[in-house]
């Protein structure tokens, strides 16, 4: 908790700093005595009397000294801790008999001071901590109200409307207040900077309920809710503007207990405000589950979680502690299920077999492609299930649409389902795939056992380099090519992975081939988009044969804008942009230093064989920034091919290329 200082405490800090600037001539007590004379005179002049026994010693960085002192109710104490040379940052915390923090000063500096007005006599623990540096320190205190001190809540959080004396909230009533009469004691996570004064209220719930608090302020106000006053780790909700700087709103589902509502301000803002609190008792989970609406397969439902309580949680989506709704889903026979949700907030969906039991969760998804979409695919046995529309972490709510689809687990009712009725694929055209309702007919060497699949026929007229890439997908896929559909022995190539990972690359002779899109694992199915591209091998070979030879030591300039995407790489997002190729001949083993500067996000790479991506020996995308690339490697004697390319797709433009050779 970072505390602001009253004018009196600010004066004290200056006095302490001046005292430390004039040390005595010895160590320990002798050296610090002049400091106390100066501080004591300052405090006396402010009308305070020294009443806390002096504690002094030496502690190292990160260490703390704990001191117990008896303080009297009705007195206000000004506690001071400051360090000698070597102390960079000293902190001071006061705790009551229960061990709860009641005052602190965590400002950065070699001195710390707090004001504290106990409401009860007792032994209080004062902790002096060396946050940075280490060495000698002195702790003491004065009592009495400093002349000119602020009224109301004091620095350190001790007056009415502070953690030690919170104001009880009247539910349903409009409460008026003014933070300008308070002091700064803490800062909510939704507030940026500043040390605005705050006022603390308390509310106690006897049973599980939804708490809603609205702040209307004459200044840029803020509002937050804590489980333990002053402990920002216990923050439950925080809001600055809803929807503008004069209104803040928080809402949370809470278990029985005592909570703290803090009225604060953005930066250093303060002023008059009105606070309205509503508490709504919640149904028990059995009642909520019994009232769940039916989710009918194939029919989308729309709804909203705004203003709803948080009844349920999940294993994904940061616990899914946001407002939620629950639906029932009846599955008549063992089926594949696909569940999709689209929302105008960061939504989440999950499925349970037992509505009230979080351990019965079967599947959970937060983000599918982005925070506004969620999607689940799984296989369910016959029975009743519970589907939840929820949100990420806490405070995420809004409108959504939800749809569940079921198909028999054996499938057999999808377009391009098998070898007898394949779909058609052509170079340059994306294939839109959906294996959700397909049967499991085939398998590849890299996966596909137990997963549904679809088949697409490819007609190859010339020698080509064929590339097929899983660009988007709801499932991890296995993709493979067979010369004869259904005969595993004719497989040409197989690759598996998620979107952007599964990619086929093979040289094909003229003929008919079959591209199979399968699931990489059992029960992996859904929709996908596959990009298919053919590169004429003869044209690639001609480009390689015509590649200009690099003359090391000379700067080469060029522009990839007028070229096309003929070659790819292992770095730079695949380097699927326009490219140019050059030939480098080494007469002996040498160190090769290649550096490029581009007017775009460029990349460079080296191969041994021009048209064969598997012979790549080095690749670099960014060196320092995305306008520079660098390769520095040792190569044996031979002919190599140097490519100037661009990051991912559509990165092209002018460049310079420098190649230098040296002894290895």
Features:
mainly beta, Jelly Rolls, 5 domains, disordered N terminus, 664 residues, five-stranded mixed β-sheet
Describe this structure in words.
The protein is mainly beta. The strands form ten sheets. Strands 9-11-16-13-14 form a five-stranded mixed sheet, with no helix packed on it. The chain has a five-stranded mixed sheet with strand order 18-20-25-22-23, with no helix packed on it. Strands 27-29-34-31-32 form a five-stranded mixed sheet, with no helix packed on it. Strand 31 (477-482) and strand 32 (491-497) form a beta hairpin. It is flat. The two termini are 59 Å apart.
Structural class by SSE content: mainly beta
What's the pLDDT, averaged over the residues?
87
Distance between the termini: 59 Å
Reported by name, the CATH topology of the largest domain is: Jelly Rolls
> In percent, how much strand structure appears in the residues?
over 45%
Give the radius of gyration: 35 Å
In one word, what is the shape? flat
Largest beta-sheet details: 5 strands, mixed
CATH class of the largest domain: Mainly Beta
Count of DSSP E strands?
43
């Amino acid at each position: 908790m970072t505390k602001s200082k009253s004018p009196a405490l600010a004066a004290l800090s200056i006095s302490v700093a001046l005292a430390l600037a004039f040390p005595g001539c010895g160590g320990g007590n002798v050296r610090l005595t002049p400091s106390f004379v100066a501080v004591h005179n300052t405090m006396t002049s402010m009308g305070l009397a020294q009443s806390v026994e002096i504690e002094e010693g030496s502690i190292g960085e990160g260490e703390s000294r704990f001191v117990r002192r008896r303080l009297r109710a009705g007195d206000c104490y000004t506690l001071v801790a400051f360090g000698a040379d070597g102390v960079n940052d000293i902190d001071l915390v006061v705790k009551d008999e229960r061990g709860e923090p009641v005052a602190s000063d965590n400002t950065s500096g070699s001195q710390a001071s707090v004001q504290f007005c106990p409401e009860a006599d007792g032994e209080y623990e004062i902790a002096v901590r060396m946050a940075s540096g280490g060495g000698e320190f002195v702790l003491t205190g004065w009592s009495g109200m400093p002349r000119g001190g602020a009224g109301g809540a004091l620095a350190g959080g001790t007056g009415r409307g502070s953690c030690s004396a919170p104001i009880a909230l009247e539910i349903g009533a409009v409460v008026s207040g003014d933070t300008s009469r308070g002091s700064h004691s803490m800062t909510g996570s939704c507030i940026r900077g500043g040390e605005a004064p705050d006022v603390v209220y308390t509310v106690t719930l006897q049973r599980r309920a939804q708490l809603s608090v609205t702040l209307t302020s004459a200044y840029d106000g803020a509002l937050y809710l804590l489980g333990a006053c002053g402990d920002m780790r216990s923050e439950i909700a925080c809001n600055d503007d809803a929807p503008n700087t004069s209104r803040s709103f928080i809402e949370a589902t809470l278990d029985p207990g005592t909570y703290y509502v803090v009225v604060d301000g953005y930066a250093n803002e303060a002023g008059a405000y009105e606070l309205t609190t509503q508490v709504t008792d919640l149904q028990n989970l059995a009642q909520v589950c019994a009232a769940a609406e039916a989710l009918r397969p194939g029919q989308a439902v729309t709804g909203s979680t705004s203003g709803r309580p948080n009844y349920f949680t999940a294993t994904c989506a940061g616990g899914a502690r946001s407002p939620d709704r629950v639906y029932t889903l009846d599955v008549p026979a063992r089926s594949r299920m696909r569940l999709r949700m689209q929302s105008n907030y960061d939504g989440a969906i999950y499925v349970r077999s037992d509505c009230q039991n979080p351990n019965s969760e079967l599947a959970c998804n937060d983000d599918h492609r982005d925070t506004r979409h969620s999607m689940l695919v799984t296989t369910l046995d016959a029975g009743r299930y519970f589907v939840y529309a929820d949100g990420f972490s806490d405070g995420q709510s809004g409108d959504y649409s939800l749809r569940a689809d079921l198909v028999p687990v054996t499938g057999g009712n999808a377009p391009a389902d098998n070898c007898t009725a394949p779909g058609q694929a052509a170079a340059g055209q994306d294939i839109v795939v959906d294996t959700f309702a397909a049967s499991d007919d085939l398998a590849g060497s890299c996966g596909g056992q137990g997963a549904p699949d679809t088949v697409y026929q490819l007609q190859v007229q010339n020698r080509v380099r064929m590339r097929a890439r899983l660009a988007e997908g709801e499932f991890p896929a296995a993709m493979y090519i067979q010369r004869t559909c259904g005969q595993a022995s004719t497989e040409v190539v197989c690759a598996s992975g998620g979107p952007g990972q599964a990619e086929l690359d093979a040289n094909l002779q003229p003929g008919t081939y079959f591209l199979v899109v399968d699931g990489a694992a059992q029960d992996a199915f859904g929709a996908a988009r596959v990009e298919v591209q053919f590169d004429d091998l003869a044209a690639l070979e001609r480009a390689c044969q015509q590649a200009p030879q690099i003359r090391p030591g000379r700067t080469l300039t060029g522009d990839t804008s007028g070229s096309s995407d003929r070659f790819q790489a292992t770095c730079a997002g695949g380097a699927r942009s326009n490219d140019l190729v050059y030939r480098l001949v080494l007469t002996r083993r040498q160190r090769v230093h290649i550096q490029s500067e581009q007017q775009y996000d460029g990349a460079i790479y080296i191969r041994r064989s021009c048209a064969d991506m598997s012979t790549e020996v080095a690749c670099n995308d960014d060196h320092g920034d995305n306008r520079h690339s660098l390769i520095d490697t040792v190569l044996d004697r031979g002919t190599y091919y140097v490519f100037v390319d661009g990051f991912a797709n559509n990165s092209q433009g002018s460049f310079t290329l420098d190649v230098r050779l040296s002894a290895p």
